[in-house]
Design brief:
mainly beta, 18 strands, 0% helix, 232 residues, six-stranded mixed sheet
Amino acid sequence: NASTEDKTYTVKVIEVVESSYNETTKTIETPNGADYDTVKVKVEKGAVTISATGDGQYYIGQEITLSGTNTDSDNVYLFITGPNLDNNGIVLKDLPGQTPAYQATNPVSVKTDDTWEYKWDTSGCALDTGAYTIYATSVLTNGKSSSASGGAVKLSDSEYATVSVNLKQPFLSAVPSGTIVAKGDKIYIRGTAEGDPSTLMLYIFGPNKFVRESITVEDDGSYEKKLDIGSD
């Protein structure tokens, strides 16, 4: 249990015969002829790890997969610190809400193989661009504070790990295949859409003309739209 010291223990199993414990040598003395066996068991201190997909640079709107291991408890609590956020951190899963870390009620469950995973959709996070630090803790903490608060412990009393992410503002580029098009001809609009959107909207405004169409964005962020210019 949680109070077990992290060290190596020896477990000995002996045949059911009369045995005695020697206080001097601190061993179990087995009568000659009794069968026995021993096994060493190492109890290790629990730990938490966290990593994020990619290279740490993300456009707001992308999905970031956070994952790791937790051998200390059955839950992982995630909070984030960074520009214009509470110094002690806010609950990651509550964004765009600004819930203090110590009020978290929605941890990530740890699987039976001690791994965990959370997919963070940044499209609605309402965060500014900049560098952020995400904390994964094994118990509810008062953020990164050095003091406890209510049922939340101070950070140093929890097993935890951190990962850094840098959020950037997404952008669009659009380049036409030409700026003068004859009636009955075609024009292509090509570009790149950063931020991992699945679709874009195309709007055309002109004399007695309004067009609205959707554009599918490829997995690599590129897109192309063909416009047929009618003879009318």
